[in-house]
Amino acid sequence: MAYIDYYKTLGVSKTASEADIKKAYRKLARKHHPDLNPNDKLAEKKFKEINEANEVLSNPENRKKYDKYGEHWQHAEEYEKAKQQEQYQQNYQGSSGGYSEEDFSDFFGNMFGGRASTGSSRQVKFRGQDFNAELQLDLKDVYTSHKRTLTVNNKNIRITIPAGIENGQTIKIKGHGGKGVNGGPNGDLYIQFSVLNHSKFKRDKDNLYVTIDLDLYKALLGGEFMVDTFNGKVKLNIKPETQNGTQVKLKGKGFTKYKKEDQFGDLYITYQIKIPTDLSEKEKTLIKELQKLR
Amino acid sequence: METQDLIPIQILCNQYKIPVSFINTLQEFQLIEIIVENEGFYIHNKQIKEVEKMIRLHYDLDINIEGVDAIYNLLKQVKSLKQEITMLHNRLRLYEDL
Q1: Hey, are the CB atoms on A38 and B61 less than 8 Å from each other?
Q2: pLDDT (tens digit, 9 = 90+) per residue, A207-217?
Q3: Considering chain A, what percentage of its residues have pLDDT values greater than 70?
Q4: pLDDT of residue A223
Q5: What's the pLDDT tens digit per position in A150-206?
Q6: Class for domain B3-96, per CATH?
Q7: Which of A34-43, A243-252, B47-56: highest mean pLDDT?
Q8: Which label site among A137, A195, A206, B70 has the fewest CB atoms less than 10 Å from its CB?
Q9: Which of A122, A127, A169 sits opposite B49 (nearest CB)?
Q10: What is the pLDDT of residue A87?
Q11: Do A154 and A145 meet the contact criterion of CB atoms below 8 Å apart?
């Protein structure tokens, strides 16, 4: 286990007074407290480190042990016992075995566990910490509501992902966050959705936008045209003399409205008229004749 | 309003080991809303999360009520700006490939 210099964590010297430690802790805690830095994992990690350092250094007895035993301060008594036993064995049995520096680390390393830090000495009940998770989905996944099983902190949670959820939207799963402190209620789990769009449709809330290529003659003369919507094809009637960039709206052919699976937004189609290329001599002649008519 | 959603202020203060005056001050700063029903004073359970946050800011971080007020309002602004950024990102995607 890597040695953590709690003095360095709090930015104080080894000779710092209790008041200096308290002052340094308060200053850093105000900077990195999760309440002041929502959804900032780095700040949360830093705050835990500060808390851990403060827990040790603000208690004179723990600080003394830490100064003597370093990161193994919690097991100082066990170490002393082990040391005494070793001395006993050496003195009375002439044993050459014992605890080397490496043994020391392994011995305590196995016993050294994580501690919950609350940063508060008041024994009051608090809600558990809120957890944040991100879930990536494809646009087609959120066209309809569906169920999905997520694993959060080794627990499987089955959730319903409502149709029409937006990219960046967050939903709350009550009681699936961290455990409450001193018997307080559990925190909540916040899932932020990242909705990736690999389709040719652009989405703005429940409206969809698409640009389609239209050949020149269909634009000039009009006619029928099959167009892809998000859930199938529809036949469109193209008006004669349709201009480039014309936008038409297909009502109810857009994306599912949030939590309303039977209601849909609109689909906006923009026509991009393709001008023929590689014209033959005959085509050029005919177009010139057309030009003369205008 | 469902009465089971209301938490008596006295119980709340006992639970968090804080004086009632702290809750009253939060109300004076319009940070929370106190509900009066049948001559009792209550807080809606939807506000508990925010109240806990303010307790932590005040008692654990030693921030005075004026500071809590400023922080609380700034955090609300940050949240609203983050939502706006997300919405603008989504709209920008409409034009990104053009």
Answers
A1: no
A2: 999 999 999 99
A3: 82
A4: 94
A5: 887 778 888 999 999 999 999 999 888 888 877 778 888 989 999 999 899 999 989
A6: mainly alpha
A7: A243-252
A8: B70
A9: A127
A10: 61
A11: no
Complex ipTM: 0.74
| B60·A30 Cβ contact <8 A | no
Surface-to-core class of residue A127, CB atoms within 10 Å of its CB (0-12 exposed, 13-18 middle, 19+ buried): buried
User: Under an 8 Å CB criterion, which residues of A touch B?
Assistant: 26, 29-30, 33, 35-36, 38, 119-120, 122-127, 166-169, 197, 202-204, 209
The pLDDT value recorded for residue A117 is 40
The verdict on a CB contact (< 8 Å) between B90 and A204 is yes
Q: What is the pLDDT of residue A15?
A: 93
Task: Using CB atoms, pick whichever of B62, B78, B94 lies closest to residue A204.
Answer: B94
Question: Cβ of A261: how many Cβ atoms within 10 Å?
Answer: 14
Smallest CA–CA separation between B14 and chain A, in Å? 9
Residue-range domains of chain A with CATH: 6-111 (1.10.287.110), 131-196 (2.60.260.20), 202-276 (2.60.260.20)
- Tell which of A36, A37, A199, A211 to mutate to test the B interface (max B CBs under 10 Å): A36
Confidence check: pLDDT of B98 > 70: no
Please tell me if residue B76 touches chain A, with a CB cutoff of 8 Å: no
B16–A contact, CB cutoff 8 A? yes
CB B47 within 8 A of CB B36: no
Minimum distance, in Å, between the CA of residue A164 and any CA atom of chain B? 14
In terms of phi and psi (left: phi > 0; alpha: psi -120 to 50; beta: otherwise), the region of A219 is alpha
Q: Is the separation of the CB atoms in A173 and A128 below 8 Å?
A: no
Residues of B in contact with A182 (CB under 8 A): none
Residues A135, A193 contacting (CB under 8 angstroms): yes
Rg (CA), chain B: 18
Nearest to A26 among B52, B62, B90 (CB): B62
Which tokens hold the place of A225?
């045209």
Domain boundaries, chain B: 3-96
pTM over 0.80: no
